[in-house]
Amino acid sequence: MGIGDYLRIVRRYWWVAVVVTLMGGGIGYALAATSVPMYESTARLFVSTQGGTSVGEAYQNNLFSQERVVSYAGLATSEQVAARAANQLKTGISTDDLRSRISAHPVDKTVLLDIAVRDHDPSTAQMYANAVSDQLVEVISELETSRRGGSPAAGVVVVDDATYPQLPIGPTVLARILLGVAGGLAAGLVLTILVGLLDTRLRRTAAAQATTDSLVLATLPADPGRATLEVADLDSGGPYVERLAELCTNLQFARTADGGRPHVLAVTSAQRGEGRTTVVIDLAAALTESGHRVVVVDADLPNPALAKRLGLTAEQLSTARRRGLSTVLAGQHDVATILIPDAGGHGFSLVPAGPVPKGGSRWWPAGDADDALAVLRDQFDYVLIDTPPLALSTEGAFVAGSGDGALVVVRLGRTRLPALRRAIATLRATHTDIVGTVATFESGHRRKIAEHRRHLQRSSAQAPSTDNAGTPDAADVAAEPAALSRVGNREP
């Protein structure tokens, strides 16, 4: 993956990073609000040594004192100094507790030593620091005094008594919040990338093209208004109709593996809910509008939908339930007897699914199916077969294998790449040519579609009424969109 892929993941799942960042800031604030403030009091000591008065001796004594400072820093946190200080304080604090609060820091390149003691109360911290510095002075004096008596070789005096701390040590509330935000942002970005890498949904047409190893013939935008129609309104224009016209044009130039034009097309998908049946209906309507003879075949026998979607009459629906493709495959009827011309008044014909077969894993006999499709091939320019999803029924692959090729429908943002790969493998196993891919539900067109609908509504409201409604005037003819002029003329 390149940096562009990671940026796309962050752009898609930005809300994950935002939520985790806010959580980090909240945790930082909670820690700042619930933590008890800690104060630190510091006393400063001066280390000196006995020596001569010459310049050389003074220099040597200074070096000796600097070396002593490091040793005295370790002595300040010793158990002996802590025990003496605790005994002096008489506050009940234990030696180990007091020792854990002491820290000693030699001042670099000097003979000064800082003794710091921490406590939740500033006065107590000051008292502890004074006691520790006093006891350290006494311990050092005892250690530096020879057993034979005399003056100690080195000594320590308190230069500055312990200070009274005005402010607690550690990060402020704001600093804790900022640290939490920074940590949350880092964790959020990592989590965002992880979520993106684990998301196997198809997001881009480039991934669909790479997976199916076929050209994406069209990318149909998500149009909420399409669900309310039986067939796409081809005269309305707009992004959806434009892309549908693009699909028709590209389909007429598509070729199968042997170089022929595909006339019997199986429209298939990996899973349900990817827009397969809608593509069949709208593609049939568009091809019909451009002058082609088209028939759609409902081969999704386990879950037929075309008869209901096309708005057939009650009599036609009753007939479709009694006879259809399933009875043709069973040898009970001929194709001509079950064909419904001008289905729902949309211009193309329909071969309904018929009674749903019960039992048995195979309901698509290759020989009878080829004979039925041969009859339809002779009567129509295009035969569009709505197949079952390949993830739910392997029969869909046999259906697709009976035609000239397959048109694979994928839904952006929903189709899972593993499922699509399995579907393509199934088609390859039945030696089915993949003519092309159609991507559906492309996002980002909602505003453009809404603006186009408002424009149509305003145009309809402002259109002048005519006495002869059956004869459009010149203005109406000029304004009427040539919805499928882009599709091209009927092929010779």
TrEMBL record:
SUPFAM superfamilies in the cross-refs: P-loop containing nucleoside triphosphate hydrolases
Residues of the signal sequence?
none
What keywords are assigned to this protein? ATP-binding, Membrane, Nucleotide-binding, Transmembrane, Transmembrane helix
Q: Tell me yes or no: is Transmembrane among this UniProt entry's keywords.
A: yes
Q: Region Disordered: start and end of each range?
A: 451-492
- The biased composition feature labelled Polar residues covers 458-469
Q: GO: which molecular function terms?
A: ATP binding
Which Pfam families does this chain map to?
ParA
Biased composition, class Low complexity, residue ranges: 472-483
Which parts pass through the membrane?
12-32, 173-198
Q: Which PANTHER family does the UniProt record give?
A: FERRIC ENTEROBACTIN TRANSPORT PROTEIN FEPE, TYROSINE-PROTEIN KINASE
Protein name as catalogued: Chromosome partitioning protein
Organism whose genome encodes this protein: Mycolicibacterium anyangense
